[in-house]
Amino acid sequence: MDVGVSVGLKNENGSFKLFVMECGCYMKDLDITLNGGSSWFYQGFIDAFSNHIRSSLENAIMNKIVEGASKLDLFLGGLPKEIYVDRVATMNVTFINDPRFSSSSVEFDIDGLFIPSNKTAPQSDMHFGDTKLAPPLGSSSNMLWISLDEDVFNSVSSLYFKAGLLQHMVDKVPDQFLLNTAGWRFLIPRLYHKYPNKDMLLNISAISPPSVRINVGRIDTTMDLDVIVIVLGSDDIVPVACISLSISVSGRASVSGNNLVGNVELNYFSFDLKWSDIGKLHTGIVPSPTRIVLKTLFMPYVNSYLGHGFPLPIIKGFVIRDSYILTSYSSIMFPSSNQ
């Protein structure tokens, strides 16, 4: 018996539509033999209608194939178009373009950008044309390859910035002396003279969305921050100065379960006094306490978010395993097996 089927797969309004193009079943021979009793009598009817029986079986097999394809089409059409992350961000996982087939794989594109959680995923008008994934660098046992463009990461940083989440009020540090005006007496002498031995807060906030750049072997991010120094008075709080920081960090990405997680480290920073009510800064002393605050408080705060990770566009029920990260110009890829 020979069975052949050809199916088509195309993008239709952000979902995949599967349809049977050709289907055939051919039985070269059909041998039915009855034994015992009056089998000799019925055998004649069987032989007379063998061609009809064979044709009916061929049709039944083809109908089952078409029925199975219809069920698969319903499954593909029911795949979610969004993956909820939190109250702010949702990943748009609508398909864009038609899938591309090779002799041993199928490649397809999804939008992948993050959108506000209170909005419906729009149909993307992006087209990648003849964009191809890099040729497999690992074992042929890697059943799944996922590539994420840096625009995906920049879209989520933009959302969190607009939601006002990229800010942090610092009221405790490992060296609590830094949050008292006495600790700043040499950095900003007028601060101590005007507010002697007063506790302080540091309001750290991003003034623009962090920018992610992916290159071969590395992931870099730049962040521009405002650090407002606040003095706690007896019955009020007084903003006394604002320091502008430009920070460069490098990061590593990994896969945990079906989530992409990360960790960043401080590379370097530059600073400038944006405004002040308590005089100029002692520029030779500023870097030391600033680096302490960034490395011991701000960076762990950022890494706590990245440690939770973001969901990857994986079909429910599948689990990524044995994955590793590859970085190329403007994108990261990770081959993996799944179960």
TrEMBL record:
One of its GO terms (molecular function) is lipopolysaccharide binding. It comes from the Eukaryota. Residues 138-336 form the Lipid-binding serum glycoprotein C-terminal domain. Pfam families: LBP_BPI_CETP, LBP_BPI_CETP_C. InterPro entries: Bactericidal_perm-incr_a/b_dom, BPI/LBP_pln, Lipid-bd_serum_glycop_C, Lipid-bd_serum_glycop_N. SMART domains: BPI2. Coiled coil: none annotated. One of its GO terms (biological process) is reactive oxygen species biosynthetic process. This is Lipid-binding serum glycoprotein C-terminal domain-containing protein. It comes from Triticum aestivum.
